[in-house]
Design brief:
alpha+beta, OB fold (Dihydrolipoamide Acetyltransferase, E2P)
Length: about 725
């Protein structure tokens, strides 16, 4: 019996390393996986399943009834096999149903006519050169003499003015505009911005021109908040207003510019002040995770709270009240920071740690991570596709699961080397967890991420601690001034180090993996770590196969990106642009003459980042008013590209005029054209008309009507997005 006991103990110690015992060691995993699969199925088949959400709800009810019935059946096959099958069916059906229901609720239809909308600024507006962008919670709508109540969040872009610059969180606004469902521009390889907006709770977008937006009085704003917003919405709004108040304390202390933006992101979770250059600096150096509030920041706060409540033996005498207060503080902070998925994950895990302290159990386990994922997906299935959610869970999972696998035994016996290697191992595991996702979403791999994290992570601890101390002690002016000076010194030093690292050769490598490649890389990581643990060729073979498959997939996908020749009509730029691509090495850009080269270059920055760099294209040449080359000829509003003629109608048409009886294969009616389109059969013979964005409703109806009457094909970029035509 003694021998068997020892054998069983040894087996139990080996279980965490066994794949077959994953569900036994982490029971919540058996619920998380089918729930996530169901949500993914709902997303993949949204266009097909959206009308059949009731079927999945019925499947959920049937499987729930079967589960209840099985509780009263004592049979081996029922308990060991069929019960698990029905549990999986239940969560897959529930995940699909909840996703379809949430998606349908957010993808609402809006009127095509402009109307007067009223609402509350839900988050701090972000100011750009000419416009200001903000989240607005709509509460009412006045359209054609009809009043109706609303409860939708939109993203409002307004022209900057003295009135819009004074708007802040909680202010009431009234504007006249057309609200539409979020749409992508359709430009090559652009991020799915529309889906990200919808999944974050934004149901529409709108643009308010000068004079079309009016701030409301404080009395009217308070009336809207109290009458139209629910309890949790009011609580979130008040928490964000408190965040803005704390941020104002930083500004009054003399902290501004880039330092204020980084400090606000680190301590308050407010990233709207961050400039693109700052974001790129942190991304190139591999420390972007520091700017997103997560377990790193909440861990500092949790540690401070635990220290305060454990001082003097208070926690031993009043353990339950102390941990309850800590949990309340954690969730208040998460609410103030806007409740991002990464911070919710951390708040749930630290709440479970406090509960474990109360019950005297092990605090941090993988099962806690799975509990956090299960609760988040259960209440908000859209979180599965949130980038912060994916990065946060991937990094923590790899840290908890694989740190010990890459830590040599002799390192654990040396205090100094062990702690140093611990920091390196945590950084390696976290980067291994997020690198495929970062490469997929941001197309970058930071080469020097270990050095950056060894500097920035400890400094972040210092900054968060000093920042919180400053906010608490800001009433005591001498100490607050000293803390503000320390903050500015530490921030400038950290940013200086990051500047040096970003300037090193090949600091960041641009890569463009496909989704299948990312999945294969994660599979290779998984089998590699298991091989390191078990030293069995059984796990080395699938590791090698996954790695080889990832290389093959990338080779095939890169080969498909070589054929880029064609005519590209871009959308969503600050000026109308047409690109004529001969090959990856040679292309030409048409833009109206009234736009300077610097404006055109800035407008094409997204195209350069997402399309040209991805396909290895050289920077194109801009076509002047008169231009002759072996591939492109231009005279006035006419551009000859190969065997295709493109007529661009914009503000320059008044100067060049349209020749009588001119023939053009494609007519592009660009933004800025104020005339009437001539007769398509007699005056302007063409095969296709491309309607640009931001044309008036009258122009759009007139042109489409002429196209239909003449039997000419037309393409509306406003509703369909950017257009690519093959080269001839």
């Amino acid at each position: 019996m003694a021998y068997n006991g020892k054998k069983n103990a040894d087996a139990s110690r080996r279980r965490p390393e066994s794949l077959g015992n994953a569900f036994e060691n982490y029971p919540v995993l058996r619920y998380v996986l089918p729930l996530a699969i169901g949500i993914a199925v709902g997303n993949a088949g949204r266009s097909v399943f959206s009308e059949y959400s009731s079927v999945f709800f019925a499947a959920t009810l049937v499987s729930a009834a079967l589960l209840i019935a099985m509780l009263f059946v004592k049979h081996y096959s029922v308990e060991k096999v069929w019960f698990g099958v029905v549990v999986n069916l239940f969560f897959v059906s529930w995940g699909t149903y909840t996703f379809l229901r949430s998606d349908d609720a957010l993808r609402c239809s809006w009127s095509d006519s402009p109307a007067v909308y009223e609402g509350v600024v839900y988050d701090c507006p972000k100011k750009y050169d000419k416009v200001s962008r903000m989240r607005v919670r709509l509460t009412s709508c006045y359209e054609k003499g009809t009043y109706k109540t609303l409860s939708r969040t939109i993203e409002l872009t307004a022209m900057r003015s003295p009135e819009t610059d004074t708007l802040d969180t909680g202010d009431g606004v009234m504007f006249f505009s057309t609200v539409s469902t979020p749409r992508n521009t359709g430009n090559p390889y652009e991020p799915d911005y529309a889906s990200s907006l919808i999944r974050s709770g934004v149901s529409g977008t709108a643009f308010a021109y000068n004079g079309k937006l009016k701030p409301l009085s404080q009395e009217r704003a308070l009336s809207i908040i109290n009458q139209n917003l629910g309890f949790f919405e009011r609580a979130a709004l008040r928490a964000r207003q408190f965040r803005d108040y704390l941020q104002n304390k930083y500004e009054l202390s003399g902290i501004g510019g880039e330092s204020l933006a980084v400090l606000s992101a680190l301590t308050l979770g407010d990233k709207h002040l961050l400039e693109r250059s700052t974001r790129e600096l942190f991304s190139i150096t591999g420390v972007s995770h520091v700017l997103a509030l997560s377990g790193l920041h909440l861990g500092i706060i949790y540690g401070i709270l635990q220290f305060l409540f454990t001082a003097g033996g208070f926690a031993r005498r009043m353990r339950v009240p102390a941990q309850a207060v800590i949990i309340v503080f954690i969730w208040i902070y998460a609410l103030m920071a806007g409740m991002p998925a990464s911070l919710i994950r951390a708040a749930i895990m630290y709440s479970l740690v406090s509960l474990a302290v109360i019950m005297g159990r092990k605090a941090v386990t993988l099962n806690n991570l799975f509990v956090a994922a299960f609760l988040i997906l259960l209440f908000n299935p859209m979180s599965l596709f949130d980038i912060g959610f994916q990065l946060s869970f991937a990094s923590v999972f790899f840290i908890l699961a694989f740190v010990r696998a890459i830590t040599p035994v002799y390192m654990l016996k040396r205090p100094v080397l062990g702690k140093l290697w611990g920091m390196v191992a945590v950084s390696l595991c976290a980067q291994m967890g997020v690198a495929p996702l970062v490469a997929y979403y941001f197309n970058q791999f930071p080469v020097y991420f270990i050095f950056s994290n060894l500097v920035v992570v400890p400094v972040s601890f210092v900054l968060v601690a000093i920042g919180l101390a400053f906010l608490v002690l800001s009433w005591f002016q001498p100490l607050a001034a000293a803390l503000a000076w320390a903050l500015k010194l530490v921030l400038s030093s950290m940013l200086g180090v990051l500047d040096v690292i970003s300037g090193l050769p090949h600091a960041s490598v641009w890569i463009y993996p496909s989704l299948l490649t990312v999945m294969l890389v994660y599979a290779a990581f998984f089998f590699a770590v298991i091989y390191l643990r078990r030293k069995s060729m059984l796990y080395f073979v699938p590791f090698a196969c996954c790695g080889l498959a990832a290389v093959i997939v990338e080779t095939v996908s890169n080969a498909k990106e070589r054929d880029v020749a064609g005519i590209y009509f871009y959308k969503g730029l600050s000026c109308p642009v047409v690109q004529f691509v001969v090959s990856r090495g040679e292309s030409y850009v048409y833009a109206p003459s009234r736009y300077a080269d610097s404006v055109v270059v800035k407008s094409l920055s997204g195209i350069s980042r997402n399309f040209w760099r991805r396909c290895g294209m050289n920077v194109p040449k801009r076509i002047p008013d008169t231009f002759v080359s072996p591939f492109v000829l231009r005279k006035g509003c006419m551009v000859q590209f190969g065997r295709q003629r493109v007529c661009v109608l914009d503000t320059a048409v008044r100067q060049y005029r349209i020749p009588e009886g001119m023939s053009a294969d494609i007519v592009y009616v660009a933004r800025g054209f104020r005339g009437n389109l001539p007769d398509l059969r007699q005056h302007l013979r063409t095969e296709m008309v491309v309607l640009g964005e931001r044309l008036s409703d009258y122009q759009r109806r007139d042109i489409t009507g002429k196209c239909i009457a003449a039997g000419v094909k037309y393409y509306d970029m406003e509703s369909k997005g950017a257009l690519k035509l093959s080269a001839q």
